[in-house]
Design brief:
Radius of gyration: 25 Å
CATH class of the largest domain: Mainly Alpha
Largest sheet: 2 strands, antiparallel
Structural class: mainly alpha
Shape: globular
Number of strands: 4
Mean pLDDT: 88
Order of helices and strands: HHHHHHHHHHHHHHHHEEHHHEEHHHHH
Number of helices: 24
Bound molecules: heme C
Distance between the termini: 26 Å
Strand content: under 5%
Low-confidence stretches: 1-52, 502-510
Number of domains: 3
Helix content: 40-55%
Amino acid sequence: MKLDSFRIARGQRGVSNSVLLGLVVVVALAAAGATALLTNIFDRKQEAKTTTTRLVEVTEDTTDPAQWGVNWPKQYGSYKLTAERTSTRFGGWGGGELVTPQRLDRDPWLKKMFLGYAFAIDFRDRRGHAYMLQDQEATQRLTKPQSGSCLHCHGSLMPLYRELGGGDAMKGFEASYKYTYKDLNKKLHDMGHGRGVSCPDCHEATTMKLIVTRPGFIQGIQRLANSEALTPFAPSIERWRASGKAKPYDPNTDATRNELRTYVCAQCHVEYYCSTQMPLTFPWGKGTNATQMETFWDETKFPNGDAFFDFKHAETGAAIIKAQHPEFELWSQGVHARSGVSCADCHMPYMRDGATKVSDHWVRSPLLNINRACQTCHKQSEEEIKTRVDLIQQRNYDLMQRGGVAITTLIDTLKAAKAAGATPEQLKPALELQRKASWRLDFIASENSMGFHAPQEAAKVLGEALDYARQGELAVVRLGIATTKVAAVTAPVTAPVTAPEPAQAPIKKP
Ligand code: HEC
Ligand code: HEC
Ligand code: HEC
Ligand code: HEC
Ligand code: HEC
C-alpha cells in the first residue's frame, strides 16, 4: 500500500525530479552504512506500527473476533456487517429472518435433479458470513447422517484440528471426517470456538499477513500444482513448477500476496466431497474446469474400491456427482482471473479512512458497491456496469432454465422406459449421460454468481449439459421401448423463461 502511493507520487513529479531522485539514490548507495541504518529504522518503524497499536494480544487460537477488533476496529466493524440483510436480483437473501428462501421451491427441477440425496430435502439461498454456522446447524440436510468434515468451511475450527491431531492440524483434519457432524460440532462449541469464519482463518496473528489455514485447500492446491493443468490464474504455481519442485508447493510461502487475496476465499468457495467415507477432498488433480474435475471424480475410487459417486438418483438409479458452489473454479476460467483480479478486489474493495486504506470486511455482492468494487478499474457509469452484469446473468439464467427442462425430460424419459421394462444394461449409456448432464447443470446452478465469474465458460458448461441431456433422451427413445409413454414427456420447449424480480429492493451502504 505504502509502495503504491510512493510510486504514484513519484510518477507525478516529472522527469527532472526523477533525475534528481536518481542522484539521491546514487549518493545513498555510496553511503551503504547509512542505507542499512535507514532500512533498519524503517523495519523498526513497521514493527512498531503493528505492535504498538495492539491493545490486546491475539494468537492463532483467538477465534473471538471481538478481541482482534480491539486492535483493528475498522476491519472488525465492517466484518460485523455481514449480519446485515442485503439482496440483489440474484445475490444475497430476501425473505424471512430465521432461514433464507428455499431454492428448491423456486426451481423445482433442482429437486428433481437431486432426488435420492439430502439436497432434495433442503437447499436454500446463502447469506452473509455471520450466519454460516447457524445456517449449517439448522439445515434439514442434517436429518441424514453427515460428517464432521462439514465444519471445515462453516466453523472457526483450526484449534479443534490442532487438538485432534496432538498439535498437528493436518493430522487432526485427516482424522476429522470419521466423526459425525453432531459430535464434532459439540466439541467445537465445548472448546469455545462455536462461531463462523474469523480473523485467524485468514490472518497470521503476529504479522497480520494473509495466510491460508484450511487443510482441504492446502492439499487441493498441491494436487493442482502437481498436475499438468495450465494455471494462468496462479502464476506462483507455474514458477514453482519451473523451479524444479524441490519442496512441496506451499501457498503460504510460494503464493504472492495477490494470489492469497483469492486463496483465502478458495478455502471454502469450491467444489468438494465430504462424507464419513473418505477425507474432505478438493478435486483439482487434473485442473479446475468442469471437465477436468469430472475426470478427477471419474477416476476416484472409494477406500473399498468402488467407483466414486455422491448419490444414486432415486428415480433412475444413475450414479450422480453433486457439484458444490465452485466459485473459485469458475472464476479461474475467466478473464478477471487471467488479469490477476482477485476475489478480494471485488468482494472486499478498499475503503478510504483518512490517509489510509482499509479492506472492506463486509464480504457481500459487489453490485451493492459498484463504485469501489468495479469503477476502480472500469470507467463506465455505474448504470452501464450494472447493465452489463445484468445481461450476462440474464443470458446465463435463461440457458440454465432450458437445462432444467432438459434434465427433467431426461429423468422422466428414463423413468418411463424403466417402467416399460427396459433393462439396466439397455439404459446404461443414457444413465451415464444423465450423470454428465447433471454434473454440468448443477455446476452452474450451485455456483453463486449466475455466470458472472466466467460468462463464456458458464455458457459452454450449460451448452454441454443441454447436449448430454438430449443425447440421453435420444438414447432411450432409440431403444424403441413403449415409445408412446416416453414420447409423452418430450414436449418441445419454446416458452421464454424470465428471471425473478429481486426479493426486495437492493440495500445500499449509505
Ligand atoms: C470482477 C469482480 C469479481 C471477482 C474477481 C469475483 N467476484 Fe464473486 N461476484 C461478482 C459479481 C458481480 C457477482 C454477482 C453478484 C450478484 O448477483 O449480486 C458475484 C457473486 C459472488 C457470490 C454470490 C454473492 C451473493 O450475494 O450471493 C459469491 C459467493 C462469490 N461471488 C464469491 C467469489 C469468490 C470466492 C471469488 C474468487 C475466487 C470471486 N467471487 C471473484 C464479482 C466478482
Ligand atoms: C471458512 C469458509 C469461508 C471462507 C474462508 C470464505 N467464505 Fe464466503 N461464505 C461461506 C459460507 C459458508 C457462506 C454462506 C453462509 C450462509 O449462508 O449462512 C458464505 C457466503 C458468502 C457470500 C454471500 C454473502 C451474502 O450476503 O449473500 C459471499 C459474497 C462470500 N461468501 C464471498 C467470500 C469471499 C470473497 C471470501 C474471501 C475473502 C470468502 N467468502 C471466504 C464460507 C466461507
Ligand atoms: C469446502 C467447504 C464447505 C464444506 C466442506 C461444506 N460447506 Fe456448506 N457452504 C460452503 C459455502 C462456501 C457456502 C455458501 C455458498 C452456497 O450456499 O452455495 C455453503 C453453504 C451452506 C448452506 C447454506 C445454503 C444451503 O445449501 O442451504 C448450508 C445449509 C450448508 N452449507 C451446509 C453444509 C453441510 C451440511 C455440509 C456437510 C455435508 C457442508 N455445508 C460442508 C462451504 C462448505
Ligand atoms: C475470509 C478472510 C478474512 C477474514 C476472516 C478476515 N480478513 Fe482481514 N483481510 C483479508 C484480506 C483479503 C485482506 C487484504 C489483505 C491484503 O491485500 O494484503 C485483509 C486485510 C486486513 C488488514 C490489513 C489492512 C487492510 O484493511 O487492508 C487488517 C488489519 C485485517 N484484515 C484485520 C482483520 C480482522 C481484525 C479480522 C477479524 C475481525 C479479519 N481481518 C478477518 C481477509 C480476511
Ligand atoms: C482490478 C481491476 C478490475 C476490477 C476491480 C474489476 N474488473 Fe472487470 N475487468 C478487468 C480486466 C483487466 C478485464 C479484461 C479486459 C481486457 O483485457 O480487455 C475486465 C473485464 C470485464 C468484463 C468483460 C469480460 C467478461 O467477463 O465478460 C466485464 C463485464 C467486467 N470486467 C465487469 C466488472 C464488474 C461488474 C466489476 C465489479 C464487480 C469488475 N469488472 C471489477 C479488471 C477489473
